[in-house]
Amino acid sequence: MPSYPVDEFDNSLSERSPMGVHRKGKSIVMAIVAPLLVFIGAGAVAYGVVVYLWAQNGGSGLPPLGNIAVPTITQTAVVGPTDGLVTVSPSPSPSPSPSPTPTPTAEPVHHDAKVVVLNGARIAGLAGKSADTIKAGGFTAVTTGNMSSNLPKANTVRYSDPIYATTAQQVATLLGITAVEQGTTPEGNISVILVTDPAK
After folding, report:
1. Where are the domains of the chain?
2. What 8-state DSSP symbol labels residue 180?
3. Among residues 122, 129, 133, 200, which one has the least CA distance to residue 170?
4. Around Cβ 123, how many Cβ atoms within 10 Å?
5. 21 vs 106, which has greater pLDDT?
6. What is the pTM of this model?
7. Where is the composition biased (Pro residues) (predicted)?
8. What SS3 string covers 76-89?
9. Is the model's pLDDT at 164 over the cut of 60?
10. How far apart are CA 156 and CA 172, in angstroms?
């Protein structure tokens, strides 16, 4: 087979890299180191920018790391359908205040009531003198009499019906008698039974 001297075409073919399936694969180390170098470079550039801004604001030396803004992560709570509902407890019902007991109304003084003054002290003119005192108090139906049996131990004013209780008390006050009771009255609505002189 004839041989030919090596020319420029032969040299260009020998300098070419393998083609097709014969191409060499990338190194694993370069696949790891390359991104790492890019990350370090980006961090250095960012720090350089911070240093520059720090110096522009009048800071001296290296800026403190605490001044570098750190992104804040905010957590937002998702409220479910039943979350956030406020349970309102029913307020206790106020206890009803007791109704005030009505005060019984006192009966008025009946100045037209029949008042009988009975002398049981056997002192002459005692019934008439006491009757005059009662009349001076505004009573218009006052009479006198004597009583010798079933005498009380002290001067007493008796009334036949509760409606005359206030009236009997008024008569007793006029004569200075303290004993006032409901009972049987021989005559009239109120009986004044005298066993002593109430003026003494």
Report:
1. 28-64, 114-194
2. E
3. 133
4. 14
5. 106
6. 0.49
7. 91-105
8. CCCCCCCCCCCCCC
9. yes
10. 8
β-strands 156-159, 190-194: how paired? antiparallel
Spatial separation of the C-alpha atoms in residues 118 and 155, rounded to whole Å? 10
Four-way CATH pick for 114-194: 3.30.420.140, 3.30.70.2390, 3.30.300.30, 3.30.70.1400: 3.30.70.2390
Handedness of CA 13, 16, 18, 19 (dihedral sign): negative
pLDDT digits (tens, 9 = 90+) for 117-161: 999 999 999 999 999 999 999 999 999 999 988 899 999 999 999
Residues 6+ apart with CB under 8 A from 151: 120, 193, 195
Structure tokens, 22: 């014969």
Q: Could you tell me how many residues make up the chain?
A: 200
Any idea what the Cα angle at residue 55 is, between residues 50 and 61, rounded to 5°? 90
